[in-house]
Amino acid sequence: MCTTPSTPDRLYSVRELQELGYGSKNTIRRRIAEGVVPALMVANTVKIRETDLKYLAVPINADQATA
Q1: Domain count of the chain?
Q2: What is d(CA 18, CA 3) in angstroms, rounded to the nearest whole number?
Q3: Phi and psi at residue 64, to the nearest 5°
Q4: Is residue 4 part of a domain?
Q5: Which of 7, 10, 15, 17 has its CB 3.0 to 4.6 Å from that of 22, i.e. a possible disulfide?
Q6: Which H or E run contains 15?
Q7: 29-38: per-residue pLDDT in tens?
Q8: Shortest CA distance to 22 belongs to which of 60, 54, 46?
């Protein structure tokens, strides 16, 4: 049986996520500390999987979108 290895998730640093507009470094670190966003330690650097970026996004309703 032949299995195809899955493509690993891209890992982002807190700084990269800040530069991409996911919030300030403090906000991202706080959400990790609160357990809202899963994170990994890689070589003494906090990393967030690409598939976990959804936890940094906050949904809005239609009223907020037009404000």
Answers
A1: 1
A2: 37
A3: -70, -30
A4: no
A5: 17
A6: helix 14-19
A7: 999 999 999 9
A8: 54
